[in-house]
Amino acid sequence: MKKLIECVPNFSEGKDMAVIEKITTEIESVDGVKLLDVDPGEATNRTVVTFVGTPGEVVEAAFRAVRKASELIDMRRHKGAHPRMGATDVCPLVPVANISMEEVVEYAHKLAERIGKELGIPVYCYENAALKPGRKNLANCRSGEYEGMADKISTQEWKPDFGPGRLNERAGVTAVGARDFLVAYNINLNTTSTRRANAVAFDVREKGRVKRQGHPLTGKIVKDEKGDPVYIPGTLKEVKAIGWYIEEYGIAQISMNLTNISVTPVHVAFDEVCDRAAKRGLRVTGSELVGLVPLKAMLDAGRYFLRKQKRSLGVSDAELIKIAVRSMGLDELKPFNPKEKIIEYMIAEDDGSRLADMSLTGFADETASESPAPGGGSVSAYVATLGVSLGTMVANLSSHKRGWDERWEEFSKWAEKGQEIKNELLYLVDEDTKAFKRIMEAFGMPKKTKEEQLARKNAIEEATKYAIQIPFRVMQKAYESMDVMDAMVEKGNPSSITDAAVGALCARTAVLGAFMNVRINSEGLEDKRFYDDIYAQAREIESAAIEKEAEIVAKLGKVLDKKD
Description:
This protein has 17 helices and 13 strands. Helix content is 52%, strand content 14%. Strands 1, 2, 3, 4, 5, 6 and 7 form a 7-stranded mixed β-sheet that branches. The chain has 3 domains: 4-178, 2-Layer Sandwich (Formiminotransferase-cyclodeaminase, Chain B, domain 1); 183-347, Alpha-Beta Plaits, CATH 3.30.70.670; 355-563, Formiminotetrahydrofolate cyclodeaminase monomer, up-and-down helical bundle (Four Helix Bundle (Hemerythrin (Met), subunit A)). It has helices spanning 17-28, 55-72, 101-119, 138-142, 145-153, 194-204, 266-279, 295-309, 317-328, 338-341, 343-347, 360-368, 376-399, 408-443, 450-491, 497-520, 528-563, and strands at 4-7, 10-11, 33-41, 46-53, 88-97, 123-127, 174-178, 183-189, 209-210, 231-232, 239-246, 251-258, 284-290. The chain starts with a strand and ends with a helix. A hairpin with a 4-residue loop joins strand 11 (239-246) and strand 12. By secondary structure, it is of the alpha+beta class.
């Protein structure tokens, strides 16, 4: 599945929107990147920009934006309320989907190196991308601000991680980092009291509340040996929180920043506030997400609340999101639209061209048209999708079968496995057609000069390899899905085992159909070793699928014979 990262650069210009527009135009010039937000501040003379996309493209867009900012913003003339040290002051990369923090750190280092080498701007790496422990905290890197950077950089301790060891007088210094996704999240209370909301906020936030001698509200503040107040930590790590009153809604809220949702997810924060509020005689009535949230955060929340009910977690993404919204009351103050609140949905191409989004009739009509795509590869992937969907259905029915309550988790795991395979197969339905189009585009490349001929030849070879890999992946996933159907025929709800067996027939058909595409797509491929390796593996999968289907049908036959 597609890897996504977010970039949130802060530029030292918040008044001249013509300058900001030129910078954001550079970002939007990169395919595979979507600009999500531009937030200028006049008093701070600073603009926070948010964009998201695939890693390589995000790094390219970030570089172009930094380059343009260095051309348009002169730090020698900059004044603003916010601490700053460069035209592009900070440029953090944030993992969003299907990518680890370790990978994001690598991209941050690549970006930092490019900025330093090609633009001549000194760069410090901070947060998870820090190359030295003392630089992890951004405040340490930025201390002294622009005015103090010339002297700071000249010391051995603060020699830049990348770029020249002297101040770029016009562009200043840039900090490039990798950090976790920050979620702004407000929880609604059935009170108008800011003081009571603050009490709950102090209960849960990591910083906690000031420690006092005697009375917790009026007692003398306890201080450490340095004279600083001592705090009693709250219950939630990586959480900042405060209580406030929202006149627009007539309620008090706990306003939270979840600075690392892998440590404290949204649903954990919600439940903890519910618990703490109840102990203070308050009730949580709902909540709201401010800004965008990764899809995973919503899916994890849906699974969390289903698990508490001892219900199967192997349901669709749409159902998981619905459960999360209802459980946390995310639509109490205003409607929650997943297409506007979930990052992956917001940036998804929604032009109606995806085969997987078509109706059954639409897909059939498109397949039957005179267009050569979708063809056998996409249909094989979709047949496999239908097959594993049947197996997943039986798992869910078994999980909720009366009298089998103690086995809900056993079947839930099979349903989750089925959903995971189903989602990838749906992706492959469209990807097979895209692979075909890539071959056509490669053949349509110019071939007048030797350079063009070589580029065309290489493009055809790579597109052909991809067109082989996609149906091969369909074979792998279709065969893997047969484990779900096998388990359901053997252990599932007796009333539905024939549905699981039909799913196995579909999976076997998909394996054989996809193998045909593996073979036909190899025509003209020059890298014979590549094809021979895949062919050998595909032949094994084909044989195993045929054998597996026979075993599943035999198991079903024994059950049906007993009934006859």
